[in-house]
Amino acid sequence: CGDSQHEAQMIVDEIKRFLYPVHSAPPSPHQKIAIIYRSNNQGLPLEEMLRLNQIPYTMIGGQKFYNVNI
């Protein structure tokens, strides 16, 4: 991956492939997908890509970037 944005886009592309298969397999519910990452700086690009692609998500064990009070 070139950078964190590119990595996040690749992850979301794989999720979309899983959620909306082009072959005859039924789509999988988004509740069965997990993204595990080590570094907090990976969270923002992932959240942005999920939001842009209208993929619902729940943050567990951390705080959604967009809920942070500054």
Helix content: 25-40%
**What proportion strand?**
under 5%
The count of DSSP E runs of length 2 or more, i.e. the number of strands, is 0
Mean pLDDT: 80
Major sheet characteristics: none
Cα distance spanning the termini: 31 Å
Helix/strand order, N-terminal first: HH
**Cα-atom Rg, whole angstroms?**
13 Å
Shape: globular
Number of helices: 2
Structural class: mainly alpha
Report low-confidence residues grouped into runs of 5 or more.
none
Task: Kindly list the characteristics that best describe this protein.
70 residues, mainly alpha, 0% strand
Question: How would you portray this structure in words?
Answer:
The protein has 70 residues and is an all-alpha fold. Helices cover 37% and strands 0% of the residues. It is built from 2 helices and no strands. The chain has helices at 4-19, 43-52. Helix 1 packs across helix 2.
Describe what is shown at a glance:
By secondary structure, the chain is mostly helical. It is 37% helix and 0% strand.
Task: Show the helix and strand layout.
Layout: H1 4-19, H2 43-52
